[in-house]
């Protein structure tokens, strides 16, 4: 399927049908979507991070209606989104409007689902107005649907991954000056290159050098990179087809300035083997826990187990982190269309850290590696 | 007070004392801070927008403890933040940890407050674990405290405003090419200039040209600016002292490419008079509603009332929008330390729009205009 042939209206109509079927089968009387990725996944529209309430009311039988602040309404491509708009003007009570719209469905509602990232203040208002309702997180309904990507989504994620690969390759080729620059300055260049490579937005750019590498989510700061540093570069952005909601990239590569010490080389060999083992474990029918185990087992066997302090990966799509999570013991069974990161790491506090991350897609025949940048340890001169 | 003399630890200790006094006087047994600005205002630390829970447990008597994912813990400057860390490792249940920490306070708790922007999914988990608790939005406790800025905060907001002014003046001087460029390209340059002027982050840059100006929150797109266009430029970023949490800027200026039509000139004169009237109304003891009325009255009297479709302003601080809100009928009484935008607008659907926005601070003797860029209609040649 070529990018231009994606019929977004048809895609969104399919998603809405699937959601409604799940509402019916799960016994959920309505789904209320506000902040977070469910709303753009379903409609292409993202709620502004404002104190004014935006909320899509999805019912098993009636058409979806978007409650939206009047001054945001012109930004909604209502026809493309296939929703009816219910703009509210300043001074009106949007919660009352949501309740009125719920009356078109099962009344009184017994169970309602609300966006995981809806703001607590809005949920509290809804709860005060509908005290008898049992509330669920929307992800119980939307998570499994969003986790299984269709072909167009896999293609978009591959587009995002290729754009991130271009930046990783530039770093590995020594085209991004590192030595003598601060982490923050390097992070800014990484961000700029993510945009130049086709991302519409930069989501994050971690540059963690020397001992800072031992903090997996280190915030790039004033530390100047110097010879001997192990540098963890973890970055990603959002990449979108025209008119479509964006999909995320996320890649990590580790480089050494100068020659790697024997200790770093040994640890990296373990890391690379662990990541390869985890990727090799990916296929339909395998559990997420088994993929985690494949990586963790290699690292534990080499004696680094206590320095691998996080899960092996996370699903990726419209959100940077979404289902399926690749965690120890997870019994989620992988199926074609699941797309997630495989990113083991080894972190020696106060000394150095390293991580190797790629996005993989589960395919009927096994897996596809969406990232292709080289995975070996790169030593950079100059 | 000079920027370097601000003792952030002392400031944060004062804020914690004030919060605890309010918890006691409001009969709130605990305050749980997660996403949003309350946490960085109190500690300098901002929760990552992750599915892993970060939550500060503030009790009337016991010391504050930050529940934080183990891999984020190294990012917290715990000593500066004056909190104890309770890191949780993957597989642990952070909600259980929060509940255990609450046991150090009034038990069982009857009323708890949670960050307005905490995620619904986390509130639902807490509610499932503590079904008897009455939940409140944290802003009922923190909002009035955060709304009244101390001298160092007013100084930071003035610093942010001056940085935004520099960009506004450059636009008004014709230093930012407009004609023949798309809104999106202009927005990118505005963002770059916000950083160059000293902002650490760009929060938004609206460029709304011609008929797009009639949508107050228009997303800059492919429309190319041309002679005759009225262009609304509304932008802001975050500006921080070293080590301090950032404060926001927010300014809007409207320019015309070429000569303004008589209609645009007439409407702009009304807008400018309305904004001046509202600023002139700002002083201690006046209600927020009276400031809104001052702007709205001028616009209504001139016959444009139905085209001014939003409130007159919003408080600004660590968040772009916070208390006090300058809305019709608001009975909130202004007091020294309140800082907010004054931003009336006139929007003619399908034709053009205009808005004029400045940040003002309420002072004991009246007000201070934190933005100083010229407010008249600017016609740009070339």
- Look at the structure and name the CATH superfamily of the largest domain in chain A: Creatinase/methionine aminopeptidase superfamily
User: What fold name goes in the CATH topology slot of the largest domain in chain A?
Assistant: Creatine Amidinohydrolase
Radius of gyration over C-alpha positions of chain A, nearest whole angstrom: 23 Å
Strand order of the biggest β-sheet of chain A: 4-3-2-1-5-6
Number of strands of chain A: 18
Q: Number of helical runs of chain A?
A: 10
Low-pLDDT regions of chain A: none
Q: What's the level 1 CATH class of the largest domain in chain A?
A: Alpha Beta
> Per DSSP, what share of the residues of chain A sits in E-state strands of 2 or more residues?
15-25%
Number of domains of chain A: 2
Oligomeric state:
homodimer
Name given to the CATH architecture of the largest domain in chain A? Alpha-Beta Complex
Gross morphology of chain A: elongated
Largest interface in this structure:
A-B, 40 and 40 residues
SS content category of chain A: alpha+beta
Largest sheet of chain A: 6 strands, mixed
Taken in chain order, the helices and strands of chain A follow as HEHEEHEHEHEHHHEEEEHHEEEEEEEE
Average pLDDT rating of chain A:
94
- Straight-line distance between termini of chain A: 44 Å
What fraction, in percent, of the residue positions of chain A are helical? 25-40%
């Amino acid at each position: 399927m070529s990018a231009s042939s994606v019929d977004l209206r048809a895609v969104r109509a399919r998603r809405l049908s699937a959601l409604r079927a799940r509402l019916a089968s799960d016994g959920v009387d309505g789904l209320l979507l506000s902040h977070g990725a469910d709303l753009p996944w379903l409609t292409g529209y993202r709620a502004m991070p404002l104190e004014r309430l935006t909320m899509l009311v999805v019912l098993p039988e009636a058409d979806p209606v978007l409650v939206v602040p009047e001054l945001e309404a012109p930004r909604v491509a209502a026809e493309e989104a296939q929703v009816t708009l219910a703009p509210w003007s300043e001074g009106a009570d949007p919660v009352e409007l949501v309740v009125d719209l719920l009356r078109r469905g099962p009344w009184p509602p017994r169970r309602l689902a609300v966006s995981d990232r809806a703001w607590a203040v809005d949920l509290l208002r809804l709860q005060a107005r509908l005290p008898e309702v049992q509330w669920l997180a929307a992800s119980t309904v939307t998570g499994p649907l969003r986790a299984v990507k269709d072909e167009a989504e896999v293609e978009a994620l591959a587009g995002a991954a290729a754009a991130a690969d271009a930046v990783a390759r530039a770093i590995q080729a020594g085209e991004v000056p590192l030595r003598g620059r601060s982490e923050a300055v390097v992070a800014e260049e990484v961000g700029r290159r993510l945009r130049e490579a086709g991302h519409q937005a930069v989501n994050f750019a971690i540059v963690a050098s020397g001992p800072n590498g031992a903090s997996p989510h280190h915030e790039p700061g004033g530390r100047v990179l110097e010879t001997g540093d192990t540098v963890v570069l973890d970055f990603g952005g959002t990449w979108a087809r025209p008119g479509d909601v964006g999909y995320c990239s996320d890649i990590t590569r580790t480089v050494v300035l100068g020659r790697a010490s024997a200790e770093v080389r040994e640890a990296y060999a373990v890391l690379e083997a662990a990541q390869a083992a985890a990727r090799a474990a990916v296929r339909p029918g395998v559990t997420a826990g088994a993929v985690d185990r494949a990586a963790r087992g290699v690292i534990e066997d080499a004696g680094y187990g206590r320095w691998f302090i996080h899960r092996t990966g996370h699903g990726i799509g419209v959100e940077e982190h979404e289902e399926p999570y690749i965690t120890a013991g997870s019994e989620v069974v992988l199926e074609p269309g699941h797309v997630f990161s495989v990113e083991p790491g080894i972190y020696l506090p106060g000394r150095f850290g390293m991580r190797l991350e790629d996005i993989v897609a589960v395919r009927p025949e096994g897996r596809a590696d969406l990232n292709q940048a080289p995975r070996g340890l790169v030593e950079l001169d100059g």
